[in-house]
Structures are given as C-alpha cells and as structure tokens.
Amino acid sequence: MRKIIPLLVFLSLLGACSSVDCPLNNTVYAVYSLSGDVLTLPDSLTISTKRHDGRDTVLLNKSVNTQNFKLQMSYSGDQDMYILSMTDTLHVTRTDTITVNKTNEPHFESVDCAPVYFHTLTGVSYTTHTISEVTISKPLVNYETTETNLYIVFKPRD
After folding, report:
1. What residues contact residue 38 under an 8 Å CB cut-off, 6+ apart?
2. Buried-most residue among 77, 79, 101, 141 (CB within 10 A)?
3. CA–CA separation, 31 vs 54, rounded Å?
4. What is the rounded distance in angstroms from the CA atom of residue 37 to the CA atom of residue 4?
5. In the 8-state DSSP scheme, what is residue 20?
6. pLDDT at 76 over 60
7. Residue 78 forms beta bridges with which residues?
8. How far apart are CA 33 and CA 96, in angstroms?
9. DSSP state of 27
C-alpha cells in the first residue's frame, strides 16, 4: 500500500501536465502599405472604426511618416469600415473611408486555446478625397504580418 500511494500521486501529477501550444498573440491583423508616388505619408494619420455595437474606437493614433500599418479585423462582421483622418502641418484635416469586405473562418489551435478567426478579403471600396486607389495584394489574413494584404495609393499633396 505504501508503494501504491506515491505511484498514484506521480501518475496524477504526470496527467495534470499538458503541453498546449496556444499562440501568445492570437489577434489577426491586416497589413496595409503605401504604394505609388507617396511612399511615406508626412501628415499625421489617425485611423478609427465603428464597432458593431455602435461605439467607435481608435486603432492608430497620430502616426507620422507612415509607410505601413497593421489594423485589427473584426471577428464576425462581413465588412470592416476604417476612417482615415490625415492632418497636415497647417492643421487641415482630410478624411477618407475604407470599407473591406471579407469572410470569417474560425481557426482552432486546440480546445484549450481561445478561438481565432482568419479572414479572406473579398473586396474593398473607398472614398477618394486623399486616396487614389486601394488594392488587395494578399487576400488571406492570418497570423502572417510580414506580407502586405492591401496597398494604398495616396494622391500627392498640392
């Protein structure tokens, strides 16, 4: 009996240990890069979005000399709308809106990990106050943040 109790304790401790490889950062970001004549945006760039519950939130705050940026995507919405506000050195603010249509695919690492959604970009629309064009270059949005998902071409400032 004395030999069985330590064996049972050892086996219960061995069974309690598990190796779950949940990602440390399970947020999925779309990568935007500037393209065309304006490769660095000298104006102050603030990007906000309206959440599906009606509230708005700032995703990027007053970024200057921007060449690229990463924006978090919503989990369940079929489209995300981003409001880009550019303020120049004379404090003139110009605003554009980018709407990204997407599909949402649940991605599970393990039942012990929080669910994550990967996305496939299906279309993009935008206003043209300061933007000339927005194109999708890599439609799959997942943990990969070294490749550009969307290219933005800004109009040269007058």
Report:
1. 153, 154, 155, 156, 157
2. 141
3. 25
4. 76
5. -
6. yes
7. none
8. 16
9. -
Whole-number Å distance between alpha carbons of 124 and 139: 11
Neighbours of 154 (CB within 10 A): 24
* Contact (CB, 8 A) for 84 and 95: yes
Rg from Cα positions in the chain: 22
How large is the average pLDDT for residues 131-139? Answer: 95
Local structure of 23: helix, strand or coil: coil
Nearest to 139 by CA among 94, 108, 103, 115: 103
DSSP letter (8 states) at residue 79: E
User: Who's near 62: CB < 8 A, 6+ residues apart?
Assistant: 44, 45, 46, 87
Average pLDDT in the chain? 85
Does residue 26 sit in helix, strand or coil?
coil
pTM of the model: 0.78
Structure-block tokens of residue 80: 């995300």
Q: Is 152 exposed, middle or buried (0-12, 13-18, 19+ CB in 10 A)?
A: buried
Exposed/middle/buried for residue 86 (C-beta within 10 Å: 0-12, 13-18, 19+): buried
User: What's the CA gap between 73 and 119, in Å, rounded?
Assistant: 8
